[in-house]
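Lab notebook page, bench 4
Experiment: in silico fold of construct C2
Operator: M.H.
Input chain length: 824 residues
Purpose: comparison with the prior construct
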Amino acid sequence: MKKKQGFKLTPSGYFQNGGVDVMAFSDFYPEGHQSGVCVIMHGNRAATNGDIRFEPTPGQWQPVPKQLGREVDEAENTIKTTLAYPDPARHLSGFNPMIYPDFEFNYSVAVKGEGASVAVTVDLDRPVPEKYIGKLCFNLELFPGALFGKPWIMDGKQGIFPRQPNGPILQMPPNHPHTADLALPEAKADKDRLLGEGYSPIAADDIIAEPYAVGRRLTIRPDDPYNRITIETAGAGLKLYDGRLNHNNGWFVVSEAIPAGAAEGAVKWTITPDVAEDWLYVPVIQTSQIGYHPAQPKTAVIELDGRDNRREKPALYKITESGAELVLSDGGLEWGRFLRYNYLKFDFTGIREEGLYKVKYGASESSVFRIAADIYDRGVWQPVLEYFLPVQMCHMRVNEKYRVWHGLCHDDDARMAPVNHIHFDGYAQGPSTLTKYKPGDAVPGLNIGGWHDAGDFDLRVESQAGEAYILSMAYEAFNVYYDATAIDQRGRVTEIHQPDGKNDILQQIEHGVLSVAGAYRALGRLYRGIICGNLRQYVLLGDSAAMTDGIKGGGDDRWVFTEDNPPRELMTAAHLAASSRALKGFNDTLSAQALEIARELYEVTRADGDQAKTAKIHAAAELLLSTGERGYKNFLLSETGFIIENIDELGWVAARADKAVDAAGFTGAVRGALPALKERLDRLGAETPYGMPYRPRIWGAGWDIQRFGVRYYFLHRAYPDIFGPEMIFDALNFILGCHPGSNNVSFASGVGAKSATAGYGLNRADWSYIPGGVISGTALIRPDFPELLEFPYLWQQTEYVLGGGSSNYMFLVLAAQRILKEGK
């Protein structure tokens, strides 16, 4: 039996004791439950956000501090972080609508390894004013998804963590900083104006659940040595709260109020996680959750504890009617270390016989998957068109036989946004509306087309035009025809699983362009976006038709924002130019409008700076493909040098336009720059066991990888002698389950043996999903812990988006299908 080492700082900058890690402010993303003191218990994040907050159960828009510094002292086995309230960048810029409490102070959180425990000490630079006594707290949040039905003990009192939050409910005292004016701007004139426009604050923080227990010693999961944590305080007492009662996306919270008169040593906790002796991370076998075409590369990635020196032989088994038969076994390829894990790779590309298979490594097994020539032919890319895009359609009622996904929504779109206003979701209207409309005016022509983005139902121009663009590229590249949906634009009804004799992909392109073109014709320019005006609407869960009353001109109508943004306007010109080609012969009027708008944006938009010039080159390429006109060709030729200098960003655009440019000098210059690009991509791809460029970050990297795969396809298609197809398959397999972390589901909901079935979409309150939606995917808990929780409220891990999520995934599947069928 190994002797317990106690919690010691590692070179990675956190405490480790066997299979338990304690991090201290390695991350700083408190709104996303990813900050402060964090405890990872035997491969699972159990607690996080250990920090001072102004509420015991804070929500997404509550005040957060600014991190000033972080010192790691290995000699003292201590991490000390200094912070301050307020954070001007978050709370005084207008982005966050919260009135900040009028108490400014600095403080520190010191975490010290002390044998089997870590000691947490909080020092303030001044005592808490009387008005905030009992409100300013030190909190530690507990992940609810792992605790439902599990026990706790507090000073002899016992309880079970419930699946739903339960009362009684306490009313916050009237001097609580957020009771009266939650989410309202500080200036009275702004309050009056917004209230007159139907602004409605959320009344979530004037209530709180009565704590389940109060005491000085709390043990979480006393029944399970792999998840047992004990928290003790030297202060007045801990309180165990259910943060979900006033915020659906809340967590369980252990909280202690900062006592009156306290400054130095205001909070002193001892956290003791149980450490299971000799525990090692169970090997995870990562494969595509759907399987493989016989002719494609096939590699399983096996993820191992970084401390595990044992090696088994990976083995491939074929599943037959009589059981499992060994097909292939070898030692695998020792890849090395990535993040905190070691990796093996098991290549079974040579197995081409069709059938059901699984990979085994010791006691671990993969999901069962197929090897079959028709692997991508049904239920893989099709759910994007069959479910996800129809469900996301705005300004429609969406039915699926007996089910109504949502009613006719936002038929009252939209009113002109107020000037000099920064919206809480980042939209900013300057001193002018940039149109003939005044703030508050009803703008006609906006209640048609478009898809809801993620779970907040807004329409961003880059999401709408971008989605139509990706669909248009897929239609052109792969001649997609699929009809499983009836879309009635006049009646504003969509019927899932009711063919209407029309190509679904063209109907969806039409739906996106209707929104962008209709708004342009109404406003005389692009919209920045359309979004609700208040937080109560913004946090809506469920039927989007409940957001407004559908009667134009009311106080609940959504707002339309405009902006002067040349890069975005030129990017939209590129998107519309491509969409005009797809719509030709399907909706000729809309096709002509899209092309006209693209031309106008290209001509009138200034291209100052590299970002705008990059977008203008993209627009010129798509306009050349749409019109064949020499002016666009000449512009591309004149910018050959810039394209070569920025080949990483523009190489795929040049690949799309190369044949249309039809100039030997242009082709030669582009070709000359591409080997160096391929070398860079290969070098980046070799940094991970997943074969293509992948840099983990707080937000799931799945969307980046899909976008990379789509762009890479055009490089492969135009220059197959330089760019082989391997990275396309690697990108697709990553999305389908071959990605880091223990939760190796397919990011595409409803696709594969195991997939993400708790997605951040309109039905997230039901812990459900939208088939064909592709989540953001595995995120990084800094510095080295990959995580994909089964939890529908973490947007950085499980969110669906428009303009590059599901449609890029669909494109990748179609690209793989085309490459395999052509034998390229």
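Observations: The radius of gyration is 28 Å. The chain has 17 helices and 42 strands.
Next step: discuss at group meeting.
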